[in-house]
Amino acid sequence: MRRVYLDSNATTPVRPEVVAAMMSVLTEHFGNPSSIHWFGQHAKSMIDDARQHVARLINAEVSEIVFTSGGTEADNFAIRGIAESQKAKGRHIITSKIEHHAVLHTCQDLEKQGYEVTWIPVSRDGVVDASSVRRALRPDTILITIMHANNEIGTVQPIEEIGRIAEEADVYFHSDGVQSTGKIQVDVRKLKVDLYSISSHKIHGPKGAGALFVRKGTILKPLLTGGGHERNRRSGTENVAGIIGFGQAAKMARESLTSDMARVAELRDLLETALKSRIEFIQVNGENAPRLPNTTNIMVDYAEGEGLVISLDLKGVAVSTGSACSSGSMEPSHVLTAIGKTPDEAHGSLRLSLSALTTREDVEYVIEVLPGIVERLRDLSPYYKKV
Amino acid sequence: MIAVAMSGGVDSSTAAVLLKEQGYDIVGLSMQLWNQRRRLPGEESASEEQELKRSGRCCSIDDIWDARRVAAHLDIPYYVLNLEDEFEKTVVSPFVKSYLAGETPSPCILCNNYVKFHHLVERAAQIGADTVATGHYARVRYDETRGRWLLLRGKDGRKDQSYFLFGLTQEQLSKTVFPLGELSKPEVREIARGAGLPTFDKPESQEICFVQSRSYGDFVEQYAGIGHDKSGSIVNTQGDVVGEHSGIHRYTVGQRKGIGAAGKPQYVMQIEPQLNQIVIGEDARLHRKRFALRDANWIAIEDIAEMDGPLRCDVQIRNRFEPRPAAVWMENGEVLVEFDAPQRAITPGQAAVFYWDDVVVGGGWIKS
């Protein structure tokens, strides 16, 4: 069966060059980077190369990149690290209602520990208003954490503007950049973020690797203590193969970002235009906001998202409804709820996310099979009467 | 395409094996029915430690894990459907209400009627599967002369599960296959072993899935949030108070309850929810011939109201019960059943299923 993968916001296929880079670590360069000998030194220098590639991708300095086990750890490290190091100053955190669960649940956990969290709402297009972040500031505010791009609907947040607000107020600013990195230009200097999370497997690297950008001078309590790896920021023997793969993926993402994403945006637009013309009663969530070039989240009236996803999978097309982590639960997506969708509307939403490896044929295949599936589901729906 | 309802057990797994061997295009579906992490209203508020303990539990019944392994082994597409809302509305909540109303409910039958053969069938149709298969030991056959779909006992009488399926409509039966209907349990295990299923020697589950290691009584109290303060009187057949009970939902008609004054064992004869009391008496007084039925469903016949004269059949009034001859008829809009000979402990809330030999004529719920 033909298989088409349009779920790149969940994860991406690993590039062959990344696999090759990792293989050399797994087979030859197995040393522990902390060791004095040749084996260790070699592994260490490979990590340094990878660190450089990751730093360049977001215009950071090499010493500002801390490797982690992934985006979730990076988010936890940033938020808990600041909460812990700044608790003498205050216990107030500002975040948005559309964060990834890694941020959302971490902030909720801190609420239970006595921190206060202000949850900034978003517009119907899924964008945070920077001025409402300003208004939420208090003397005891210690952290603002707002994602760069949303994983479900792809809307891009005004990070630069919020960065300026944070700088003026002298409050630490973290942004979850897991979805934006590799899809749009990221410059941590321009964004004025102090902390920025990235993940390897969203940019065609392996799972189990990620990084937190920590601006020089940021005071952060480590999550993991031990041998003092990563300049005492994150103890634990490095996941060398994962980091090397991440580095290779970052290098390739940077080299071809502009051309790849121009092509991806064109395919995404083709997909949206064709689906809108072939299927009645569909809307694109977040359509009027600045969006990632690879993401489209469509709301199909009179059809269940679950039925759509399974029917598409049976035809070889991989997509998702809401974010992958909430699949399997019937709670409507908190992101779609935050942009004002009813639970029924949220359950009828479908996320299609492309990557640099998506082809025109892939998109054309989806355009061919989806209308028939929607029609079958609607024929079975008691609410849908053919006009 | 046929959707196989896969519970993770050996029966539904073998049903999938058989259909796959017969060359059908199949898809495996499991139902996520109940969130084990959920805290019930009557459960004491949890400490952080208890909360953490709860979060270690799976959000689904562990069996889904087995079903996924079997589907991977058979290399068939497989999905978990979330039917928690439907399950709670049509099975769990009625189960609790029924106990609180002094009945002894049969949740597995409700689950078949409303969840498996209604909502699951509906979801299967959405993904393009017009037929649903389950691992029940029962048979479906189309009878040309009657122009009706018939439900029959499974060939292995000891494993037969037709009792639990009496609520299936003609429409549902027409879209259902039971691949194990002609097989015995040992044969099924043999097929499972031969197919290399990872679960071929898995023991059968006996528990009601959502109650899980609690007593039914505790579950009812926790779900309804009523605590332990439901005690009331136990009375004898003369109406004298002879003791105190710990909540009517903890009793079932026919259950033994102490020794009477004359040294004879006493049994629960009746549960009276309005008076919050339990009537006990001697075994001899538990035997009755007649009862009324609610929510009848007819399979082999169109409708009892269409019959000339009473329907003669054998009636089964609980799962492990040898069917006994009886007459069934309509009177003042009510279906009445009368056994030829008195039967012990006809229990409100249980199903009464009517048979002509192996053929299920129909059935309903025992009312009084």
How is this structure best described in words?
The complex is a heterodimer of chains A (387) and B (368). By secondary structure, chain A is α/β, with parallel strands linked by helices. Chain A is built from 13 helices and 12 strands. Chain B is an alpha+beta fold. Chain B has 3 domains: 2-194, HUPs (Rossmann fold, 3-Layer(aba) Sandwich), CATH 3.40.50; 230-285, SH3 type barrels (Roll), CATH 2.30.30.280; 287-366, Elongation Factor Tu (Ef-tu), domain 3, CATH 2.40.30.10. Chain B has helices spanning 10-21, 48-56, 63-74, 84-100, 107-126, 170-174, 185-194, 216-224; strands at residues 2-5, 26-32, 78-82, 131-133, 138-143, 148-153, 176-177, 232-236, 241-245, 256-259, 265-272, 277-282, 287-298, 311-316, 324-331, 334-344, 351-356, 359-366. The longest helix of chain B is centred in the first third of the chain and has 20 residues, at 107-126.
List its traits.
heterodimer, A: 387 residues, alpha/beta, Aspartate Aminotransferase, domain 2, 2 domains, 13% strand, globular, B: Elongation Factor Tu (Ef-tu), domain 3, 5-stranded parallel beta sheet, 26% helix
